[in-house]
Write a structure and sequence with these properties.
The complex is a heterodimer of chains A (333) and B (280).
Chain A (H helix, E strand, L loop, with lengths): L14 H40 L12 E5 L5 E5 L10 H8 L5 H30 L6 H8 L1 H4 L2 H11 L6 H8 L11 H29 L3 H9 L4 H29 L3 H7 L10 H10 L5 H28 L5
Antiparallel strand pairs in A: 1-2
Helix pairs in contact in A: 3-8, 3-10, 6-8, 6-11, 8-10, 8-11, 10-13, 12-13
Chain B lengths: L1 H5 L3 H29 L3 H4 L13 H9 L2 H32 L5 H11 L4 H15 L5 H25 L3 H9 L4 H12 L1 H16 L3 H6 L8 H4 L11 H35 L2
Helix pairs in contact in B: 2-14, 4-14, 5-8, 5-11, 6-8, 8-11, 8-14, 9-10, 11-14
Classes of the chains: A mainly alpha (333), B mainly alpha (280).
Chain lengths: 333, 280
């Protein structure tokens, strides 16, 4: 994910003519990107700025009107400024979130970290295992490959429904299977960790194919000469895996682990549909939690905005730290 | 690695196939289970016997297509996803080309913006966009969804198309320039026609993203006649009185077009993303 630094325009004697030169040279490139820049500005940057502003107010469902209009006897409408209208409250939302005054930030952060770590770990490990198997000359390889990417082809909310169906407490397949081998059926959604477990299983199922396909691409770009040389030196299969395969996969791994972490951190539909936060909101992750604050019960728009800002900040810090850690190890990325 | 393979013992070969068969079974099983259940009568879906085929009937499909709003939601989803796709690609195409070919001031920050927008959680834009839509009176319209989806679709399409344009040799641009074509003509008359496969794949993916979206749909839509599939299907399985006999056939009907499109496009996705990511 390297990004070229643009070559600086040649130095020009006077500032004005330099500006003019740049404009003359680049006007068509600018014209071509203009639609996207406008869309980004109107649809992303403006709402983002507004979201940041909202996170410093106390906007909620009950104080969102700026004016209160009353009908007079004559049928006219008289509007007055709403004395209780939402206003600026500084850092109050953030303080409330961090101290646990409103919302369940620490619980949800804990869930998010467990959820992200478990999902990404299994995605990567299973994806790598399957990629290594598929990279061999196996009869029926293309059939296996198609079958194995099926979960990727399923829209996430459909997959969520499928797993919700399987983990249904009354007569879902999981409990029927447990009963048939003589075990007690489990009330999956009655307890925090068993409930989170169902969502993690569902999300692992969805995410493995992407890792597998990406890592398979990485494996195929490792030169066969390296394996031959290692074999000549008497390396065992495991040694070849550790000393040739894993280092060869590093650039791909670095990218897919970063992407996977961000995607899982922000993964909305699975928790939202499979556990629905049960029991009593104890399995919400940050994104689903903030959605419920914004759109369920008494709508707390400002609180949800502050959540959004916190989530994005965490991801940006993570991505920057991750890149730094990689570049310190001499990775060109 | 053929030499390695010839040495593979029967036991190792058996293990390899056994592992792949188990993994493939797990991969397709939930879909098959939904498919099998969709043909069972309602009382058999609730049964606690494990049977793949149990008094098969098309009754559930008939019920979902004629007695529920499913067909309306399906059309709403098609319209929303189609407009998102067209708008996304239309806006993004020329920018993808400019980012692929020219080094201009602002290019670097634009590329960074695309990267960062990929990190945006649903939570960060949904509330401000909701309040803007409410001010514009657009809540409970498909237009509001198309606009919201474009926040993701436009940067994604630009990124994907840039990756595709990178694979088209620059010599073509130079030849076009020698023939006296300006940059815009080169783009529209030479490069864009060559980029049709890339455009198709990008459009398909944008379509699928909108097809599968539920957060904005759940927040913005209010009446049953406006629901998209992502919201509508949730109403089949509320906390109590879950109608799995409606949900299972709907899930299959939602999944089939998505899976077909996906299987067609998937070969190009990873290479496209990777090209966009590594070639700067």
């Amino acid at each position: 994910m390297s990004i070229d630094t643009g070559t600086p325009p040649p130095p020009a004697p006077a500032k004005r003519s330099r500006l003019k030169d740049t404009a003359e040279k680049h006007w068509y490139a600018w014209a071509m990107v203009l639609p996207v820049v406008l869309v980004l500005g109107v649809l992303v940057l403006y709402p983002l700025a507004r979201g940041i502003y909202l996170s410093f107010t106390d906007l909620n469902e009950s104080n969102q009107r700026e004016e209160i209009c009353t009908k007079t006897l004559g049928g006219d409408e008289v509007c007055e400024p709403n004395p209780d209208a939402a206003g600026f409250v500084g850092l109050q939302n953030y303080v409330d979130i961090i101290t646990g005054e409103r919302g369940e930030f620490w619980l949800q952060l804990g869930n998010t970290l467990v959820w992200t770590a478990a999902c990404v770990l299994f995605h990567y490990a299973l994806g790598l295992g399957l990629a290594v198997l598929l990279n061999r000359h196996v009869r029926g390889r293309s059939i296996y490959r198609v079958l194995l990417i099926v979960p990727w082809a399923v829209p996430a909310f459909i997959a969520a429904f499928a797993w919700k169906f399987i983990f249904n407490e009354r007569n879902g397949l999981a409990n029927v299977l447990l009963k048939s081998v003589g075990l007690e059926p489990v009330q999956w959604f009655a307890e925090r960790w068993s409930s989170l477990f169902t969502a993690i299983v569902a999300n692992i199922w969805i995410g493995v194919p992407f890792m597998m396909v990406a890592l398979l691409g990485g494996l195929q770009s490792i030169s066969a000469d390296l394996y031959e040389a290692a074999e000549m030196d008497g390396a065992t299969a495991w040694q070849r895996f550790v000393n040739v395969t894993l280092p060869g996969l590093r650039p791909v791994s670095a990218t897919v682990i970063l992407l996977g972490t961000i995607w899982t951190f922000n993964m909305f539909p699975i928790i939202f549909l499979v556990t629905e936060g049960q029991p009593a909101g104890q399995t919400e992750i940050l994104v689903t939690g903030s959605f419920r604050y914004a759109f369920e019960g008494i709508r707390q728009y400002a609180l949800a905005s502050a959540y959004g800002i916190l989530i994005l900040s965490m991801l940006v810090v993570f991505a920057v730290a991750y890149r730094k850690a990689l570049s310190r190890q001499g990775e060109v990325w | 690695m053929a030499a390695v393979d010839q040495r593979r013992s029967k036991g190792a070969s058996f293990l390899l196939h056994a592992t792949l068969i188990v993994a493939s079974t797990i991969a397709v099983f939930p879909v098959l289970w939904i498919l099998a259940s969709s043909f069972k009568p309602a009382n058999r879906i609730r049964s606690s016997e494990i049977k793949f085929i149990d008094q098969p009937t098309l009754e559930n499909y008939r019920a979902v297509l004629t007695e529920t709003e499913f067909p309306v939601w399906f059309m709403n989803s098609v319209v929303t996803a189609a407009f998102t796709m067209l708008f996304g690609v239309f806006m993004a195409a020329s920018a993808g080309y400019a980012l692929s070919r020219f080094n201009f001031p602002g290019r670097r920050s634009l590329m960074w913006t695309f990267l960062i927008t990929q990190m945006f959680p649903v939570a960060i834009l949904i509330v401000p966009i909701y309040t803007i839509m409410a001010n514009l009176g657009l809540i409970n319209t498909l237009t509001s969804l198309v606009i919201a989806y474009c926040t993701v679709a436009v940067p994604f399409c630009t990124w994907m198309l840039k990756g595709y344009f990178d694979t088209i040799p620059r010599e073509l641009d130079e030849a076009a320039a020698l023939d006296g074509l300006g940059p815009f003509q080169t783009f529209y008359r030479v490069i864009l026609p060559l980029a049709r496969p890339g455009l198709a794949v990008t459009m398909f993916y944008t379509f699928l993203t909108a097809w599968s979206e539920i957060a904005y749909a759940t927040a913005f839509l209010q009446t049953k006649d406006k629901f998209t599939l992502g919201y509508g299907l949730q109403t089949f399985v509320p906390q109590f009185n879950q109608r799995w006999e409606y949900l299972t056939p709907s899930a299959i009907l939602v999944l089939i077009p998505a899976a077909l499109i996906f299987m067609y496009a998937q070969r190009h996705l990873v290479s496209g993303l990777a090209a966009g990511a590594t070639k700067g």
